[in-house]
Structure formats: structure tokens, C-alpha cells
Amino acid sequence: MAERTYLPFSINRLTARFLALLPVLLLGAWLRFNNLEAQSLWEDELYSWQISHLATPWQVIEAAQQDVHPPGYQLVMWGWQRLLGQTAFALRAFSAFCGILSLAALWQVGHNWLSAKAAWRATLLMAVLWFPLYYSQEARSYSLLLLLTLFSVLFAFAGQRYRWHYGISLACLPWVHYFGILVFVGHGVGWVVYFIVSKRLWWGRILLLGIAFLPFGGWIPNLLGQFSREQSGFWIPNPQPFWVQFVTYFWFFFNRKIEQTYWMMALLAFGVVASLVIPNQRLLRRRWAGIWLVAWLLLPAGLVYWASLYGFSVLTERNLIICLPAAYLLAGLALAYLPNRWLNLTISLALVVFFFRQLYTPNHYWREPSKTQYTPAMHTVLQDISGSWLLAQTPDLSVVDYYWVQAGQAPAQEVLLKTSTDWQAVQAAVQTHQPAVIWYLHSRGERLWQGDVPFAGYENIPQPAFFGLALYRFERTNR
Questions:
Q1: Rounded Cα gap, residues 192 and 199, in angstroms
Q2: Which of 122, 142, 238, 313 could form a disulfide with 308 if both were Cys (CB 3.0 to 4.6 A apart)?
Q3: What is the SS3 assignment for 332?
Q4: CA-CA distances (angstroms) from residue 130 to 15, 32, 66, 83, 134?
Q5: pTM recorded for the entire structure
């Protein structure tokens, strides 16, 4: 029997499918745009702003050469900021839009590979689970990386009409995040296996795979330079023992609760076994879909684990967001295989409600701070900034420069503190210039001074507590 080809969107059924999916998209949109500014912008987001805020795209590209990421996302945000501004809402709104589109793309991939029943369940899970929601509300590249990964899978078997959609989605991936290269590798391996199994060779897709990667070849020297600079002091730790790392991988995907992680791992295993033992054509539109999903879920993660264990550590769960759709599609497939229509529906909805409830209890996702609270701390500083000094023991001055641009004012002096030598120079400068107010922002490393007041002739004015940082205010006693 010939292998069937599925277009990503069937025009004569597009309206019906959209209306069926609309409630899930509205739920996902509400969660992603709900309280988008509730969590403070943190270091990585502010550093993204610093690069994308530059005057021209060429300056963005030059700055990205000194970063550990490619310039694609920063270039997109360069244009986005000029359309919508630089508020926290505007900076994060792009990721939220990508998150909503990812829900639609996941549903279509599930519909093409599995069934409408499995696609519905997978998409509902992705709409309410913490991991995709978190990165849909962060001004970083991960939500866009997820969307492009889904597009590349969606258009892979979509017929000649969509071949350029496939090529463009692939071409964009490594420019957005270096783990996009793993998606390229996955497609290459997938086409080889597909040829071996089906004896059919899609030359057009394989040629597009090569063409799509060619433009990125010019950036590879920059990639190698970035990693050579970071080898001595890269922040990502070495991997944990295999089983701990393996469970942690799923722990992030399923709301960071260890007991339910084991239950969900068992559910995924059931979905794989059921797809092999009971090859139901109503639930599996593509033969061996369960095995393909397992490969998508585990092979990139295994490759990264091996490379981090024996080479340069790059293993973080957020980088592996490229594997996230496979986990949710397998969960949707497993739920679709449960017997008895009403039992199936009841368990599926109960699971979605259970994960949705965890966004509010025991810790409220939007009220409990989870990101370093630079925004409320800097709003406190801005209440009395004229003529003041700011001493920032932070990774970079970008974490404070954003707020000067937004407020249209800045301190008389700002100093980035990294070493005790910097601190000694500051102490000497304070004694010379005697500023009326000194703000000290501390978010990284050990505090560089001991005792209650580090400067003679100043008193420590207590400040509110902030998540992830400490803020001090010192006033000259004879002010």
C-alpha cells in the first residue's frame, strides 16, 4: 500500500478544524498573555534587550558574535521593538504569539501523524503545562525555536506544494538557536531511515535540507569562536548521573513534580507499547508513528547528554525544548488508546484540569516570583536616582541600563563590580566625591564588603526584600 501524503492544512476542512481547535487556542492564548508582566524581566531577557536594542541590524549581528547565541532571534526582536515598543509586555508578546502558534502546529502534526483524538489531548496538555507556558512568557528564543521545530516536522511530509515552507523553517532554525542544528541532524537521519524502510527517496526534501543549511555555514567560524571563549568559564554544569538526568528531563516537561513525573513516564511507555501491539489505523495515521516519536524525544537528548559528559557541557532542559512536542504527542496517543470512550474522555480531561490547577496551587504561577526581581528593585532605585550612584554587582550593566532608557533618567555614576579590585577603587572614589546617596545592587557572587556599612560617613537605610537579589541604600549622614 502506498504511503499517504498529508497536507498540513486541507482547505475544504480548514474552517471546521479551526473552529474545533479554537477553544484550545483561546485557553492557550489567555494563559500566555495573562499577567505577561507579572514576573520581572531577568538577566537573560535584559541581555537580549541590550543586543536587540542596538541602532542597526549590523550592530546586532556584531554584538551577537560576542554572545553564546546566534543573531536570529535578536534580529527579529530588533524589528519587533520598533513596531510595539520596549515594555516588558511588548518584549514578551512575541514569545506568547509563538506559543499560541505552536499549539496549532502541534495539533496539526498530531492530526497528520496520529489522529484527531490524540492531537486534541496533546494540544490540551501543551496549553496548560508549565514548561511551554513559562517560555511563552519569556523574551528569549526558546518559544520561537519550538515553533520552527514544529513547522519543520509539519511540512516534512506535506507534498510539493509546501516544500519551500519546509526549507524556510529549516533554514531559520540554526539562526535562532544552535540546538536548531540538532533538528537538522534529526531530519537527515529521519530521511535515511525512511528510505531504508519504505524504499522511497524524496530527493527534493533531501536537497532542500542541504540548501537550507548553506547560509548558516558562514556563521560557523563565529560559533566555534564563541564556544572556544566560553570553555574555561561556561555556566552550564556537567551532567548528572544518567538516571537522575533522565528523570529530570521529564520532570521539567510535566510540572516539576517527581511523583507525577513517574506516572507520566509510565503513560508515555504505555502509548509506545500500545502503538506497536495494537496498530489501530484510527489512532495512527502513519505507520510506526510511536517509534518516530520516541526517536524525536530521546535521540537529541541522548546525543546532548553524551556530548556534555565527554566534551563541552551544553545540557539544559530549556535547550531541549525541541523534543517537547514528542513527549506531549506520546501522552496524547497514550490517552487516546485508553479503552471505553467515557473513561478515556474522563481521564484525559481530569489530567488537563489537574495540570491547570497546579498553575495556581500550591504556588501561584503568576504571584510567586520565579525570576530575579530587577523590575521592582529598579523602580525603588528610580524614586531617588538624581545625583545618586549605583554600584551593580551583577553579570552586566544591561540589567540596569534597560530601566534608565525606560525612565529617561540615569544615576550620576554607575559602576559594575566584579572583583575586590573594583571594590577598592569604588571606596576611594566615594571618599573623594562623597555622593549623597549610594545604591548597591547585588545579584551575583559573594558580597564584596563586610559589616553593615561599607563607607565611612554613611548609614544603611533598610530596603524591601526582593527575590534573587539584595538592594542596599546608603545615605551620607551629613546630607
A1: 10
A2: 313
A3: helix
A4: 30, 11, 32, 29, 6
A5: 0.92
